[in-house]
Amino acid sequence: MPFALPRPHRDDWRIAVGGLLGGVLLWALGIHPGRASDPVVLWHASWAPLVPLALTVACEPLRRARPRTGLLFGTAALALDTVTVGSIVTIVLYTDLMYAAVLYGTPASARRIPWITGMLTVLGGLLPAALWRDPQGLLVGVAVGVVAFAPAATGWVVRNHRDAAEAARLRAEQTALLAEMDRRQAVTAERARFARELHDMVANHLSAIAIHSTAALSLDDPKTSRDALAVIRENSVAGLAEMRRLIGILRDSSGDLEPSPTPTLDGLAALVEGARANGLDVTLDAGHDRVPAPVELAAYRIVQESLTNALKHAAEGRVRVVVREENGSLHVRVTSAYRPGDAARAPGSGSGLAGMRERSTLLGGRFEAGPEDGQWAVRATLPLTEGDPA
Question: What is the pTM of this model?
Fold first, then answer.
């Protein structure tokens, strides 16, 4: 693959053209930093300063594309300029090449060039003064410092500020990205929470409505139909109240509202009575102290969903609910009669088991559900986290 030189920046071309015109103008006016009688002037031709000027001008387009190459040839041009009467423009352009080599060069070059030019500045002042035994020899070091070390140090400072600004910009972008990710995760978590609450609070009522409406339609008995319609009305009113609570929470812009009142384990007895009213033969065995609110709410919802599933899917038989605190955890177990192949009395989406598993996982607990000794068993172990209990 052939070597391709990066395209120079437009400003670099402008600097080169401006330097060439300015140098030629000063040469035409006879303005030079040196004189033909100076002992260091070895090339006395009148056009001699134009050669290092042209070479330095040719290096300017490389100040960004190839800063080290431009500095190398620029240094050679400056050395050549010292043996002529010289050109102020050549010196100025060289300081720009030195500055660009530090600013646009590699990190290694940016570290080494100021150190090297600093050493040359010190040596350029001390050695001539020591050899000539004349304090004016220090002016050589001053000249080296002005032409080489000062632009290199300036480039180092500007580069540090530029790198710091770029790092700050990247940090700001990363912070904004993380904030957006946190916002999306918070929205997703909030939606999942409301989905669980909606399913747990309303599904029980809707399942009872579906089952009792089926009974009312299938049995030609006025008393049975009236009893079924009474249960349907009771569950529809309760479900509508829960829906209104959730809608109120979603409409509240402050986000401070919670379903009121928040269910607790003290409400298990009322939950079981409601299940009995819907036709389930339920027994409750509860023994626990006061537990943290998140664990209490999760346990209540797991029992509630298990009773809903028993109402929809369980065979005829007793449903047993056990809630016990043992070994630093709250154990929830709900068993119901199970016969494989029985059709469900009400349709289900399967999200109830997923919601119970999510509640257990969020608290660092375990959840299992499945057939066990001719029964369907739901088991959840919820660790009691440290903190003030609810």
Answer: 0.52
